[in-house]
Design a protein that fits this description.
Elements lengths: L3 E6 L8 H11 L4 E6 L6 H11 L3 E6 L1 H11 L6 E5 L5 H5 L6 H10 L2 E9 L2 E3 L2 E5 H8 L2 H7 L2 H12 L4 E6 L4 E6 L1 E5 L22 E6 L4 H17 L8 E6 L1 E7 L3 E4 L2 E5 L2 E13 L26
Parallel strand pairs: 1-2, 1-3, 3-4
Antiparallel strand pairs: 5-6, 5-16, 7-10, 7-14, 8-9, 8-13, 10-11, 11-12, 13-16, 14-15
Helix pairs in contact: 1-5, 2-3, 6-8
This protein binds adenosine-5'-triphosphate.
The site of adenosine-5'-triphosphate (ATP) has 18 residues, from α3.
């Protein structure tokens, strides 16, 4: 990759050894003209990425948890400067949603392949949104997956918080305005997603979210009792894994370029993992707003052979 590349590295993300991880990244990316910037409490990934844009760098690589990655993504929005992603957080929703490898080796390999793609992002009440906005249930889940729990239990913290939330599930009335209709219903959780990892179960109504179609997907979860809340959640998880859309009466989904959501009573809203306030929300897709290094379509091919690492391995060619 010619030109200058800024690496933004959060030393406190995840549970690994930051010195070792940074050394590994520098080794793997030794061929790049890399300027390493480490985030601090005072100077975050947003400021470092904005400065890189002003300097006219050719690419930015962000390494940290979802907070670091989405802060860098937001600063690069609309600039055409590609973002490389080296996820080192707990949930790594950003990388998982975009199917970017979550090992340091795999992530660096993806960047070195130099395959970039323009993906959609969105604006939620005027703030940039890369993945999703959760209203109701999802918002509560994030709030309950606190830092201490995340450190101790990793991704399980989100699941535990979700199960705890089932106990307190309450329905609210919602009115949603799409590009071509206004829908009213009762629900426990609404999620508007641009992209979502399989673990964001409440975004999985349509399954297989398309990140460059210029559209957003709303999933509505409306179970009427605790038992159906549990089966609906399980069903959504299966949808995510199987790629088949949901077909339960208490799950709905609709696709639109823009969603305006009002609820009674007002519900908490979490935007890309951060609480931003309460409904109403106005969320609009920004087509092709971000350029990202992604695994090239060839890299996606499913491996049909894996022999490396077997003890005493000898392979002889027959000809
Ligand atoms: N040097 C630093 N010292 C302390 N805090 C920092 C430092 N650099 C960044 N931060 C803080 O780290 C947070 C971002 O963390 P990030 O999302 O990257 O990782 P994480 O919280 O481990 O991820 P996850 O939520 O997936 O576990 C921000 O709140 C930022 O202020």
């Amino acid at each position: 990759m010619p030109g200058s590349v800024r690496l933004i590295f959060n030393p406190v993300a995840g549970q690994g050894d930051p010195d070792q991880e940074l050394a590994l990244i520098k080794t793997l990316l030794a061929d790049l003209n890399l300027e390493v910037c480490v985030t601090s409490k005072e100077i975050g990934a947003d400021a470092l990425a904005e400065e890189a844009v002003q300097q006219g760098v050719d690419a930015v690589i962000a390494s940290g948890g979802d907070g670091t990655l989405s802060a860098a993504a937001k600063a690069l929005m609309g600039t055409g400067i590609p973002l490389g992603v080296i996820a080192r957080g707990t949930a790594n929703a950003f990388a998982n949603a975009l199917e970017i490898p979550t090992t340091i080796e795999g992530a660096c390999k993806t960047i070195l392949h130099q395959y970039t793609q323009k993906i959609d992002i969105a604006s939620c009440n005027g703030q940039p949104m890369v993945l999703l906005a959760g209203i109701g249930f999802e918002a509560e889940t994030v709030e309950k997956a606190n830092r201490e729990a995340k450190n101790r239990f990793g991704i399980l913290a989100y699941v535990l918080a979700g199960l705890r939330q089932l106990r307190d599930m309450e329905q609210f009335e919602a009115e949603v305005e799409t590009d071509d209709k206004v829908i009213s219903f009762s629900a426990s959780a609404l999620t508007v997603a641009n992209a979502a990892p399989a673990t964001s179960v409440l975004a999985q109504g349509p399954s297989g979210l398309v990140v460059d179609d210029g559209l957003l997907d709303l999933t509505i979860v409306a179970p009427t009792n605790r038992a159906s809340a549990i089966t609906a959640t399980y069903h959504l998880f299966q949808s995510a894994i199987s790629g088949n859309p949901s077909d339960r009466d208490d799950i709905g989904y609709v696709r639109s370029r823009r969603f305006k959501v009002t609820t009674h009573p007002p519900q908490k809203v979490v935007l890309d993992g951060e609480m931003i306030g309460t409904t109403p929300v106005d969320i609009e897709c920004i087509p092709a707003g971000l350029t990202v290094f992604l695994p090239s379509p060839n890299e996606d091919a499913i491996a049909t052979e894996k022999l490396d690492g077997l003890p005493d391995l000898v392979i002889e060619s027959k000809d």
